[in-house]
Amino acid sequence: MKRALITGVTGQDGSYLAELLLEKGYKVYGLRRRTSTPNYENIAHIRNEIEWVSGDLTDLASLILAVRASQPEEIYNLAAQSFVETSWPQPLLTGQITALGVTNMLEAVRLVSPDARFYQASSSEMFGKVVETPQKETTPFYPRSPYGVSKVYGHWITVNYRESFDMFACSGILFNHESPRRGIEFVTRKVTDGVARIKLGLQSELRMGNLDAKRDWGFAGDYVKAMWLMLQQEQPDDYVIATNETHTVRELLEIAFSHVDLNYEDHVVIDPKFFRPAEVDLLLGDCTKAKNKLGWEQKVSFREMIHMMVETDLARVEQEMKNKVLTSVI
Ligand code: NAP
Ligand code: G4F
User: Fold this and answer.
1) How many Cβ atoms sit within 10 Å of the Cβ of residue 150?
2) Which of 209, 199, 11 is closest to 98 using CA atoms?
3) Sequence spans of domains, the chain
4) Is the CB of 149 under 6 A from ligand 1?
5) If one looks up domain 187-215+255-281+300-329 in CATH, what number appears?
């Protein structure tokens, strides 16, 4: 039985990846950091199938112990302070987790299991103020946030450990990917949750930032397959994973609101609070290399994914409303 260690297993991608690896018969170890309120929402259905190891990306000793306890053949480093907006008010924390945390992880692997295969969750945010379109593996980076800068560091330290120590270390440069498990603060989920609340009469407006920003949005369930494929190759390498399509936030609003017969213009209010100090205006990925070498391709389209997210949020909010009525009756 193959063993894999996943950091960030409680997050969106970690939960889909854990499902995929369990389906493939892996023994899955999940790194869990201490929080005052446990956060198992995304992995509640497989919680008992995961072997838990405790640790934090900022604490090298804990990572050494986690790698020692799990003895993994494959390590997926998905943990990060992953919300771009938070990286301006918390640049040092973001750097400690999202940048130096990668070195901590790589050191733990180098010292304990140097033959293990390592996946680093790099990001299209590294392309930032893009210098070419579409963006591919050879496109120069120009990050626009402390998060993007941290991911550039994480990317290059991964490449450096591959070249310095001959480690099987891969960096997946993933463009935005979403799902019903996406954190509520990210724009797709904020919109689909807002649509559900407006449709069910719980609120009437949705406050938004820059509607002209363009993103290449895919489905997280498709993207974790690419992570796994990267670690099954003969040689370690870096790959862009994207849909080769871009959409504005405005198009996202149109698709989500019209799915429940609403017009976004009747509900969206522009709030300067949600504009960023420096924006990434356009992301559009070219994943030809992943298609040719990994045989990877997306299955779920942007529109299908947004519909899936609206439907899931409608069902959830409706259930929450029922529970509230029940609680008040009791
Ligand atoms: P996410 O939902 O925000 O999950 C982040 C995970 O990291 C959570 O499990 C979180 O644990 C964990 N974490 C945060 N700080 C930690 C620390 N100090 N020590 C240990 N664990 C820590 O992120 P995601 O969307 O699944 O993304 C996964 C990875 O891919 C991230 O590295 C992200 O930056 C990168 N990425 C994401 C996208 C995307 O569009 N989703 C695109 C490119 C790259 P808690 O539950 O305890 O908070
Ligand atoms: O959903 P977002 O917060 O994602 P962002 O900043 O693109 O970052 C995500 O994707 C990266 C990959 O490219 C990951 F590395 C990163 O971890 C994360 O998963 O914002 C998308 C766009 C931005 O241009 C933002 O300015 O939506 C715009 N936007 C407009 N109004 C908004 C809002 N974003 C948020 N979160 N909230 C708004 O009200």
Assistant:
1) 27
2) 11
3) 3-178+216-241, 187-215+255-281+300-329
4) no
5) 3.90.25.10
Q: What pTM does this model have? A: 0.98
Q: For 261-307, how does the pLDDT look when each residue is reduced to its tens digit (9 = 90+)? A: 999 999 999 999 999 999 999 999 999 999 999 999 999 999 999 99
- The residue whose CA is least distant from atom 34 of ligand 1 is 82
Give the distance (Å) from ligand 1 centre to CA of residue 262: 32
The number of beta carbons lying within 10 Å of the beta carbon of residue 22 is 15
What tens digit of pLDDT does each residue of 165-197 get? 999 999 999 999 999 999 999 999 999 999 999
Per the annotation, the verdict on 147 as an active-site residue is yes
The closest-lying atom of ligand 2 relative to the alpha carbon of residue 210 is: 30
Residue 29 annotated to the active site: no
Residue whose structure tokens are 């402390």 = 146
Q: 63: Cβ below 6 Å to ligand 1?
A: no
What average pLDDT does the segment 202-225 reach?
A: 98
pLDDT value at position 209? 98
Torsions phi, psi for 172 (to 5 deg): -95, 115
Q: In angstroms, rounded to a whole number, what is the distance separating the alpha carbons of residues 153 and 120?
A: 11
Architecture of domain 3-178+216-241: 3-Layer(aba) Sandwich (3.40)
